[in-house]
Structures are given as C-alpha cells and as structure tokens.
Specification:
single chain, alpha+beta, Cyclic Phosphodiesterase, Chain: A, five-stranded antiparallel beta sheet, four-stranded antiparallel beta sheet, 4 helices, 13 strands
Amino acid sequence: MSPYRSEGPFRPTGPPGPDWTPRPGASMRPGSNPGWFVPQGPPGPARPSGPRVPQPYAPGQEIRRRDFHAPTVNRPDGRPGFNPAPVSEPPVPESMDDLWRTFIAADLSSEAKAALTGTAWKVPDFLRPNVRWSRAEMMHLTLRFLGDTDQDRIDVITECMSEAASRSGKFTLRLDDTGAFPDLRQPKVLWVGIKGEIDRLHMLQARLEGSLKRIGVAGEDRRYNPHLTVGRLQREVPPFAAGQIGQAFAHVRLPEPRPDIQVDSLVLYRSRLMVDGPLYEELARAPLG
C-alpha cells in the first residue's frame, strides 16, 4: 500500500487504484471531481519537527554558519546554480565563524516585556500557532543592526557607541498601539509602537549613525522606524489566515497605564544561532549622559 498521506485535493487522470478510496459522498461519474482521496492503511512516517540543522548537533549547541554554506556553480548556459555540497565537508574556511551578527539596542523594563508577551494571549487560540512569538528575554529596542561584523572591529564599534551615548541624556519612552509590517491586512511582522520622547530617541540614533559612518560602516538605506517586534508569521501561513491574524492583532489593547521604558544605556549584542533558537550575548554597554 502507498505509504503517503494525501495533503490536498487533486484531480486524477484515471480511475483510482486499489490503495485509494473516494471521500464519502463524492461523485464518481465520468468527468466529475471525486474530491479528496484518503489512503487506505497506516500513514507513512511523520516528517521530523524542529530546525533542519546538520548532525550531530546537541540541544543548546551553537550552529556553525559555515555548515550551511555551499558554493555556487554555473550552469552550461551561464546562469548561476547551486552546488549541493554535503554539510559534513564544509566548503569554506573556518574564518567564516569569525564573523559575528551584531546589533545595538536599548534594554526594556520587565513591565514592558510582560505587556509585550501578553499580546500573544489576546490573539485567538486557533490563530496563535501561526506566529513565532518573541520570548521576553529576546525583546529589545533596536537602534542599529550591524549584521556580519569582524571580531577585530568590536572594540572600535564599542568606542563609537560610547561616544554617541555620552552626548545624550537619559529619556523615557512608552508603549503605544499595535501594528505590522508591511501592513495589518497581510502582516509578516507583528510589533508594538512606542511614544514619549521620540525626538530624543531619533537624535540618539542619528548620533550613533554618524559615529559608525566615520569608521566605515555603511549607512542604512531606509529611515529609522522604532518599534518592538513581538512575533513573526510562519512562512507557510496562507494569505486568508494572515489577514485574520492582522485583524485580530489590530484589536489587541495593551494594559493601562502603558509601561514606561527608561532608556539609560546602549548595548552591543551578538546574535548567536542555537539549535533551540537564537541567543543574544551582551558584548559591551555604554551609559547615556
């Protein structure tokens, strides 16, 4: 018997084989659509869950980025192709692991984190699994994403961060309403906005951007848009479900009074990809004022 389970409707080109039976009530007249077919017999092996990572990797172990790298090759017609090199034979040198994914952010208060994580439980139960919700310890207010950074430049980046922080005083922000990127009709990223002393936040970010530019860090292509990410939609979510999630998230109301965010320092973080999810490691901290 067939070891596979049917995962969607299809139109067969001939009569069903002995291993298949039509859905109850489906018409089998010539030219009609018999509907969904259900296999007879036990289902095949389930697809393994969890992140697809090279083996062996133990829980809590960091995933080496070079294990996922494979060089490209050109097809006979000159178009780029992909060389499926086995992950057991890394095709790139060890130096790729010397690049750290880094960003500069401000920490959030425990009250703000509790309010942000609570937004997930205000979304209907049947929609909630379609979103990868952010954990409280992963939440922060990003001022500048740096991306791949050579370890040798960490010290000079720290100096730039300290310079910008020393020229800015402490200020207070507050949680605002919910929103999404690109919009709430077809969301990809769910976030909560901020209000309060926004002008001082933009001034701090501009000073940081100027300091980084002087050491050769390329500027951002888009305008700084401060927000607090609370979740990202799963890739396989269909458009109609995404619309329902956006509509539900638009009606989420945060507790009153809105929690404050005291911005008193900048933190340089390293993002490490672990088997059980990302981990943020603090590299340096610069107090404001």
